[in-house]
């Protein structure tokens, strides 16, 4: 599958500008701002466990799309041909999380809360719900996995939103949505409650509260107690927040 085909699968569109909500005449500043905004929606550090795999794929694709549009020569080739080099070994091996951190300040709890406050109830959320509903053929579980900031706690609100779009004729009434059983809803809620309880138990074991300080404490505790497995939520936090100072300085110098 080519990169643009992958974009079509992940975002429902294969035009790099439209993925960032932009047009071909966008300035470099607008492209960077668009990349930052869209990537926050799928940043692996702020999505639920059920959303993480897809969000990571989207996050990586966004990084690659931005790397094309932010390079003057590569952007010119893309503008002229509509094609992206799928055989570039540098692009295939690049760590897109590190790439993101070179461009933007570290993501904090305050950033996440600010984004969610601005996103929930916005026109952008409505469009994302509409797209997710169609992409999932009306499956509410799939919709909750795709829409940023969505969870079983917001299910009733999002269900009402979808129903309103159906009533107004903006969305079709799909069987997976209209005929979903109470048992299926209850099972989804039980799974979410189990995940939340597990996370809360882990916090209690580590003696953590809320805030960035707790994130740092969680990282330190995890460093002492973890096994060999990598890729967990705690290890991702460690990779972001607990880098040696020298490496951080080197990265900043490199980005200049």
UniProtKB/TrEMBL annotation:
List, alphabetically, the InterPro entries matched. Answer: DnaJ_domain, DnaJ_domain_CS, HTH_DNAJC9, J_dom_sf, J_domain-containing_protein
Mention one GO molecular function.
heat shock protein binding
Domain J, which positions?
A: 15-82
Keyword Transmembrane carried by entry: no
Q: One GO cellular component term, please give it.
A: cytoplasm
PROSITE patterns named among the record's database cross-references: DNAJ_1 (PS00636), DNAJ_2 (PS50076)
Q: Look up keyword Chaperone and say if it applies.
A: no
Q: Which keywords label this protein?
A: Phosphoprotein
Q: What is this protein called?
A: DnaJ subfamily C member 9
Source lineage: Eukaryota, Metazoa, Ecdysozoa, Arthropoda, Crustacea
